[in-house]
Amino acid sequence: MSEAAALNRIAAALERISPPPAEAPALDAAAFLWHVAPDRLQPVERVARVDLPLLVGIDRSRDTLLANTMNFARGLPANNALLWGARGMGKSSLVKAVHAEVCAAGHDLKIVEVSREDLPSIGRLLAILRAAQARFVLFCDDLSFSHDDQHYKSLKAVLDGGIEGRPDNVVFYATSNRRHLMPRDMIENERATAISPSEATEEKVSLSDRFGLWLGFHPCSQDEYLAMIRGYCDAFGIEIADDVLRAEAIEWQATRGARSGRVAWQYITDLAGRRGVRLG
Prior knowledge:
Layout: H1 3-17, E1 31-35, E2 40-43, H2 59-73, E3 81-85, H3 91-104, E4 109-113, H4 122-130, E5 135-140, H5 151-159, E6 170-176, H6 184-193, H7 197-209, E7 213-217, H8 222-236, H9 242-256, H10 261-275
Parallel strand pairs: 1-4, 3-6, 3-7, 4-5, 5-6
Antiparallel strand pairs: 1-2
Helix pairs in contact: 2-3, 6-7, 8-9, 8-10
């Protein structure tokens, strides 16, 4: 084999191992997924979401996030937002519903979902978005960190922006079950074992302080749970008597051992299937 042929084979093998980044998309979709190796923005044709009016029991969080997002879409100052609290209470659903509501109002706002594992690449993503004309909500669902996780350091580039600053056309929304994004036992262990307890926890706990908005989500009452289900029935045209609905819904939540928006949707999915009604 000639030397030139050998070099060509080596070059081809290296390109297969580490292919060049794909060309940036035209950014004409409303939603994207961020992937790495190679870096690329994958357009999402249909976002899995529910309409904003169907999100019951979170009125204050809904109004606050909608106002913040609308300000951002209009080019006004807006805060990064952390939606934290009880599981299944509509945190991620609210982010997607608010995005749809703002787009329906005629604003060119795009949402980009970033997985926690890809946070180290966030600087490269910001460089792509900084050069774009549109405005972007970066969305990280179910964000949390373990005791040996260093990804939270990459997140600071989004929240604070470093020397270059966060791009004016980017805002960051995250959801988490944890208010400080760290397990409580991890924080307490740091305080108990560190030479300087306050300094040991400051770097990690202060990460949540970098979010301008903290929106708390708490377990819903039975009345709110039933109101969610009735709202879904009305929206999708599922006919059922109130007394039957109440009995079935309460039995459903008892078998699940929980009461939340997610449990309400799971009941509606079962009910719609039994009644032959399509959802969406």
